[in-house]
Amino acid sequence: MEKVIVLLTYSKLIKIIFELISKNVLPFLYSKKLINNIGKKEGIKNILIIEGGGIGDLLRTFPAIETIMDNFPKALFTLLISPRTVDLLSFFPRKQPSFEVMYYAPSSIKHQGLFAKWRLISTLRKRRFDLVYLPKRGQGMVEESLMWLLIGAQLRIGFYKDWVGQCNNIKTELKFDTPLLQQNIELLRVGGLNITTDEITLAKPPLSTYSNLIDKIRANKNPIISVHPGTLWATSQRRWPTDNFTLLIKMLIDKLHATILLLGSPDEQHLSVTIESGVNHKNLFNMAGKTTFLELYYLLSSSSIFIGGDSGPLHLALALKIPSVAIFGSTSPVQVIGSHQHVYVIKKDLPCSPCYVHQYETLPVCKHARCLSEITVTEVFNAVEVLLTNEY
Asked: Which of 260, 261, 286, 319 could form a disulfide with 226 if both were Cys (CB 3.0 to 4.6 A apart)?
């Protein structure tokens, strides 16, 4: 117990040090050193792209990565990402021989603490990158803006908000009322790059092991609806109640004769088992914890509708242009949902919502989450009917 307390105190101390440096030193040193045309800059041969977030974060970076590649076709590229999203790269639309992948997991022991972070920084410094693209926002923005400065790249593209991120010399202010996908692209526009795409496109993988199952389901000519009831973090503020999902699925089966594909990670199997036992119907196929990224892609691309909260499967469904019903609680759908995406957003406009807008100093903390509990099963069901009739 004492060791845990010491580690927590040590971690907090590191954050305080990073915050003091970022707030009091970096703005003074870097606020006037802005660059607005890297497209004409010679000598950019080695580029690092950093996105250590989840599935949605990496997907929203795909168009920016494509644009950077198009602007610097002869450069070497290194992608620093979370290990949990690496399989998503198999759907990246460009095949690049010089595309190297490295891992960054800030919540893991490997990258926790000052010395672990410095080892990563030292490894990256040896690569001598000319350009770093880092669309970091939310928690970790303070320490990471300083970490990536220490890599030593001359050009650093990223967001700033207030005093955070001021060491980036190609930057735009993080906005709360603009889709993050659009903001990722705007960072490159500010740097003078030629924007070649602003929409997520995915490479089509081969058929999965579930192709026979889908063919069998399609033979019934009933709607195939994928449902993901889970979330990766802040579950009390971002996950619609499990009982509501159970009631919704019963309605979808009873009234629409739908076939339900219940999705989720291995960590979310307890949710799927609870829902499965509550529904108890042959039209429900519990796929949670049983799919690879390839299989998830195939199940989603075979669906008529997707239903879920602000999580990875929703973002993958939207990238696949699957009509979706998105149930939002604490997070801002304005930031998360892109303008190209066909989605029916269900949310409650309460005085306290949204309470999370990817800011560096905020996390959803509400214990009751009225923004979720007040969303009714009927509202979600009606949204599904609207999408099925193509009236949205």
From this structure: 261
Token pair for 319: 């990238």
- Is it true that the peptide bond before 354 is cis, omega within 30 degrees of 0? yes
pTM, two decimal places: 0.85
Per-residue pLDDT of 227-254, as tens digits, reads 999 876 555 556 788 999 999 999 999 9
């949710």: which residue's tokens?
271
Is 229:267 a contact under the CB 8 Å cutoff? no
Q: Is 159 helix (H, G, I), strand (E, B) or coil?
A: strand
Q: Same CATH topology for 2-190 and 211-388? A: yes
Q: How far is CA 203 from CA 243, 293, 294, 323, in A?
A: 36, 13, 11, 19
Backbone φ/ψ region at 262: left (φ over 0), alpha (ψ -120 to 50), beta: beta
| Torsion angle (degrees, nearest 10) of CA 327, 328, 333, 335 | -130
What CATH number does domain 211-388 carry, 3.40.50.2000, 3.40.190.10, 3.10.20.30, 3.30.70.120? 3.40.50.2000
Q: Give residue-wise pLDDT tens across range 267-309.
A: 888 889 999 999 999 999 999 989 888 889 999 999 999 999 9
Q: Give the C-alpha separation, 198 to 182, whole Å.
A: 7
Q: How far apart are CA 172 and CA 189, in angstroms?
A: 10
For the chain, domain boundaries: 2-190, 211-388
